[in-house]
């Protein structure tokens, strides 16, 4: 089976509903950033030895395919799978669980005192970029509000997991002189 179709050689790509758009279209940028997040979460989970967190990341990766398929489909009648309130509740429950294990952290920290937290902080920033791209797309096209809500909560969950996995909590010191 060949994976190349040659249909994108002139700078366009097909959405899930077969509409062709430029490869730099904000819709492509939106679901492409979600794809990047899925890949970086895959990298991050290889450093996670906590089975509970590994399983959470795996579930999130699967759910991000639903997010991407929603973003990659302009004709909403052709969207097969949707984000549901229960998906958002899953994120919120886990945010509360892991932040609750942290003894009420305050203030900014220097991210990445270890590989586990470092990779998850990269995922967090990719997730926040994806959210910005989705918001931009939303100014041109209707986006399922639950997709936006899911991605917003997801960045919070990734932050909670990263903060929980920090080996050292290195507070930001604004007084350091170069």
Brief digest:
By secondary structure, the protein is mainly alpha-helical.
Annotate the secondary structure layout.
Elements (H helix, E strand, L loop, with lengths): L11 E3 L5 E3 L3 H20 L5 H21 L13 H16 L14 H24 L6 H21 L13
Antiparallel strand pairs: 1-2
Helix pairs in contact: 1-2, 1-4, 2-5, 3-5, 4-5
Distance linking N and C termini: 56 Å
Major sheet details: 2 strands, antiparallel
Just give the CATH class. Answer: Mainly Alpha
Structural class: mainly alpha
CATH superfamily placement: Cobalamin adenosyltransferase-like
Outline the low-pLDDT stretches: none
Quaternary state, please?
single chain
Number of helix segments?
5
How much helical structure, as a percent, in the residues? 55-70%
Please tell me what the overall shape is.
elongated
Order of helices and strands: EEHHHHH
**Average pLDDT, all residues:** 91
How much strand content do the residues show?
under 5%
Radius of gyration: 18 Å
Looking at the structure, the CATH topology is Hypothetical Protein Ta1238, Chain: A
Tally of extended strands? 2
Overview of the structural elements:
This protein is mainly α and 178 residues long. It has a single domain, classed as Up-down Bundle (Hypothetical Protein Ta1238, Chain: A). The chain contains five helices and two strands. β1 and β2 form a beta hairpin. The relative contact order is 0.16. The chain has helices at 26-45, 51-71, 85-100, 115-138, 145-165; strands at 12-14, 20-22. The protein has a two-stranded antiparallel sheet with strand order 1-2. α1 packs antiparallel against α2 and α1 (26-45) packs antiparallel against α4.
